[in-house]
Amino acid sequence: MSNLITRTLTGAVFLAVMIGGILWNFWSYMFLFTLVSILGIWEFFSLMKNRISSSQKAAGIALGLILIAASCGKYFYPVAEGLFSKGLFLLVLVLPVFLIIQLFRKGSVLILFSPVLFGILYVVLPFCLLILSYSSESYWSSGNHTRIILGYFFLIWANDTFAYLVGISIGKHRLYERISPKKSWEGFIGGIICTQGIAYLFSLYVTELSLVHWLVLAFIVSVTGTLGDLVESMFKRSLGVKDSGNILPGHGGILDRFDAVLISSPFVVTYLLFIR
What we know:
Elements: H1 2-23, H2 26-47, H3 54-70, H4 86-89, H5 94-102, H6 115-135, H7 145-170, E1 174-176, E2 180-184, H8 185-205, H9 211-239, H10 254-275
Antiparallel strand pairs: 1-2
């Protein structure tokens, strides 16, 4: 019972911070994702403590901060035009696609990269994309980018919640037992269907995107978010840990809470770029 109370209180505070940080103004938005990025990269480097030195860890965090500052576009620099190039932006998808492919191969992906570089690309870059999409001067002609991003996070939370509820209720066929024994095909499909319903509700109130785009966005979130969860599970299994950290009582670490974002945000931001 005490664990349920802890999870509930942590979840309520987490939800309030996320909603407030996203909706208040650009500076709260930037601070929120900067904080999450730095905590996430610190957590990742802590998991890799046997493979990187303290100086490498400090250098990695400094480089992450530089990338975040660069992603602030017009808020720090006079000209932000041209930051979003559709052809160039497709390169952002290379890492998440590579990680998804690694799910179906044996062995640890961690041995293929410098841990510092990999941590920056895996943890920091996805949040830089979310900041960059806000700060680019011409990205959102409506000026209401934050409502779409908040909708994106609600779709992630909805997919996680409904996939879990459907999975524990009727789940019998394992989705990918080698990586995540508890996930089921029933939960995965149930998450997709229920998230489509949430997307429909968002389309009624957040009209910056049409219903079709909300439904496509929800499908992208359900598929890539689930893959993000599996990718993080793959890392944790290769490192022999259950949770990435304990900064969020009852919920684990930052990487545990944002695993779906780390893989889905490059796909989501790219999709939004191409339909703007």
